[in-house]
Amino acid sequence: MIAILDYKAGNQTSVLRALNFLGIDACITDDNSTILNADGVIFPGVGAAKQAMDRLLEKKQDLLLKELVEKKKPLLGICLGCQILLEKSAENNTKTLGIIKGSCDKFDDSWTDGIDENNIPQKIRIPHMGWNTLTIKKESPILKHIKTGDSIYYVHSFYPTPEDKNLIIATSTYGKEFPAIYGYDGLWAIQFHPEKSGEIGLQILKNFNDYCNNK
User: What pLDDT shows up at residue 117?
Assistant: First the structure.
C-alpha cells in the first residue's frame, strides 16, 4: 500500500486518483502508524513553503519524514514536497526539512527562453506553467520506460538546487537548466506533477510503486 502524506497542502487527491487509475492500493493519511507501515510514501504538495512547513512542524510530521528516510522507506516528493526536502527556500526565506543539502531558488523574470518571430529573446513568465520536456542525466528506477524528450507538466515559481549535483537525475530548461528530478534510489524528488503529466507521469508513479513492491 502507498501512503500519501496528508498535511493539508494541496494535491493529495489528484495523486490518489492517478494511483487508483493504475490499480495501486493507496490512501491519504496523517496517521503515523499507517505511514510507517506502508510500502512507500508519497509527499506531494502545492502552495507556499512557509505554510507547508508550519503544518508539518505543528504535527511533528517533519520528524516523521526524517524517520522514514532513516528507515529507508521509499519516499517520493512531488512539487512543493520536492522543494522542502532541501534545507531552505527563497520563498519567504523559509527553513525547510534539510533531508537533502541544498536550496530552493526562484526563477528570475529577466531570464529568456526562446525567440519570437522577429528573433527577439522572450523573457520567461513566472510561474513556469505548462508542458516542458525532460533531459535524463542518469539511469534510475523511477525513470524506467521514460526517455529524454518526454513531456511533463509544471506549475511552479521556484526550483530545487541540491548541493550535490550527482543527485540530479533529470532536468528541464526554462530560462536556465534546472533539476526536474533529484535524489537516489528510494528517495526521489520530482518538481513537475506526474499526476498531471499523462502517460509519462503515470509511468513514473507506476515505477515508484514497482520499486516499493520489489524492495
Answer: 81
Distances (CA, A) of 39 to 46, 144, 173, 186: 24, 19, 33, 11
Q: What's the start-to-end Cα distance of the chain, in Å?
A: 13
Whole-angstrom distance, CA of residue 132 vs CA of residue 123: 16
Burial letters for 47-67: b for 16+ Cβ neighbours within 10 Å, e otherwise?
ebbbbbbebbeeeebbebbee
Residue 131's pLDDT is 98
Task: Report CA-CA distances (Å) from 37 to 2, 60, 189.
Answer: 9, 18, 21
Residues marked active site are found at 79, 193, 195
Rounded CA separation 129/7 (Å)? 24
Cell of 21: 487509475
CA nearest to 83, candidates 10, 185, 3, 176: 10
Low-confidence residues of the chain: pLDDT under 50: none
